[in-house]
Amino acid sequence: MNPNVLIENARAEGVSLAATDSGTIKVAGRGEIVRRWQPMLREHKADVLAVLLQAANDLRSRRWRVVYPGAIAIEVICYPDATRADLSALYPGAQARPLPEHPRRAPTPAEVAEIQALVSAVAEHEGWADDELRDAIAAALVDPEGALASYRFLAQGTAEGLGARSTAKAAGRALLTPHGRLNG
């Protein structure tokens, strides 16, 4: 049976399927329905797992938790949204999991002014081009609370003579510029 059809049919009956990091399929739903689907899922496990893993790798997200062996974890915010494959290329040997998105709201006029000032200060210190500055401000305005927390932190390090890269490394954070270059 085609694994895509199998997954679609199982989900239509209320069975939730997801690939786990350990290479198994997490199955959830009403007991009798799950029990009815288990033999078919076991028979086609390799194909179903491959489809579920591909879907997980294709998922695009702005916020990711990147965990290295030994439990070193960082939160990464990507602009534009990135896939698991993108994160794997940036963080070899680490596992990346998407984080839930914060509810978004429009920034207040005071937040717009502060974001513009903070991003401009960091961009000037780091030598960003004008298009990088514009893109960074646009990205920051999408999530004003998260941006203000990050850029206040980075601006503080800049004021103390540290670059954004040094400040981010010292805090165990990563900074991804609007054009996908990793600083941190």
Can you describe what's shown?
The chain has 184 residues and is of the alpha+beta class. The chain folds into 3 domains: 3-58, no CATH class; 60-98, no CATH class; 109-183, no CATH class. The chain has 8 helices and 7 strands, in the order αββααββαβααααββ. The protein has helices at 3-12, 31-43, 45-58, 84-90, 109-126, 130-142, 144-159, 164-170; strands at residues 16-19, 25-28, 60-68, 72-83, 95-98, 175-176, 182-183. The protein has a 3-stranded antiparallel sheet. A two-stranded antiparallel sheet has the order 1-2. Strands 6-7 form a two-stranded antiparallel ribbon. Strand 1 (16-19) and strand 2 (25-28) form a beta hairpin. Helix 6 (130-142) packs across helix 7 (144-159) and helix 7 packs across helix 8 (164-170). The chain is elongated. 20% of the residues are buried. Mean pLDDT is 78; it is low at 167-184.
